[in-house]
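Predict both folds.
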Amino acid sequence: MPDLYADISNVPPEIQERLAGVLEARAADARQKEMLNAYLSEIAFPMGARVLEIGCGTGAVTRTLAGWPGVSEAVGIDLSAIFIAKARELSKGVRNISFEIADGRSVSLADASFDVVVVHTTLSHVPEPKELLDQAYRLLRSGGWLAVFDGDYATATVSTGDADPLNACIDAFRSGFVHDPWLIRRLPALMAAAGFSVQPARSHGYVEEPQAGYLLTWIDRGADVLVQNGRIGGDMAEALKAEARRRSAGNEWFGHIAFASILARKAV
């Protein structure tokens, strides 16, 4: 099953609405907020910075950027009209924020019009990541910053032992919701090829224990993918979801994935 996010504009509206809820739930997670603030704090935002988020989803990160010290304007773009509508609704009253429907691989915005470009948990869903990086380079002013944050999805696990059945859900989630689970490992070379001066990557470990949080949505979506692919029946899917909740209720849950942030600059 291909990554739904890679062709999000053609995903049925009811599924996009469900994913919008997942994006906002993830953004509200305390550890997710810590990771976002950690890598944004490493960027030297100039006073009056104009900032672009590519693949903004429902705009949670863009809203953070709009309130970041030194930022005068934050713009978010995404392929999904449903996500953009939700982003506009959730940002009502924020004067220095705007959203547009656009493909990050082909953006109509002006050259050298931003000081910072952020790509947060988006690039691993993009079939042609080099095209998006080329656009980021074009859109940045001289000395501008690119910040990419994404999951090292090959590290994701909820196993508590050998042959843990819940990990089948994690494997299925990767197949259905991540285009390239290995992308973060190749990203520094791709960024350098686009012309950026790349800084060392930073790892951000994400652990849930002893109760489930955001990763529980992976179990649910992964179980649904297994059903869609004909690998299990509906009863088994419900049993897997119930087992995840039993572990969480009994303080037996453990989930982990490594995220990474990579900062780069356009030459002055």
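Second protein follows, with its predicted structure tokens after the sequence.
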Amino acid sequence: MKYKIACLQMDIAFGNPEQNYKKASDLIHQANAQNPDIIVLPELWTTGYDLDNLKDTAEEEAQEAKVFFKDAAEKYNSHFIGGSVANKTEAGIENTLLVFDKNGEQAGIYSKLHLFKLMDEHLYLAAGKEKGVFSLDGHKFAGLICYDIRFPEWVRAHALHGAEAMFVVAEWPIQRLEHWRALLIARAIENQCFVVACNRAGSDPNNKFAGHSMVIGPWGDVIAEGGEGEEILLAEIDLDEVKEARSKIPIFADRRPELY
């Protein structure tokens, strides 16, 4: 199964959902000219890291985002890995990734498990408790959010549940760009899967972000990589390559979890 993927490496207006929805709509329209099968947005794309005001800007059960992606999926006949949005739930405000299939049906939901204390997430957000595995077209994938990629055991858990590609949405700062690249490539190699990572561009009052969205193959080859600015990164992946890599080096069969 082959997929053409478009990562929307957008600059996010700090604390301005209305402006960000308009920009996302414009970028989705632009990406549609390339007929992508899957469109990916970055982390917290509706608000950015305006954590102080999330109590006002977070969406009740992510309802606005759900309607937005349902309509966009039906209009453009594309699957959406909908980045993440600030989502008011009974547990608190969660950093929640939404997945919608090309028919406009919700195919997955995942709230960020690992909160990043260096950016005060733990002071404003409630941590998720579920894995990010979901299915599209009969294939299993996984959604991860930013800091999650520093936890190889968490990423491996999704591969063990059959994920053939990991979709990472992020707001990763420029000063740790080399960590971003190294971690993403390592996660692809050690899990013998595709990694599709959509980072934001631009800056907010406290951070400059790295951009450099990436699509990486199961052998660790960088298929596509963005620059620092706002852009639409395009790439094609072939899931047959996952089967090939896993058959040639059978790391899953050779694991010895009883000793780990």
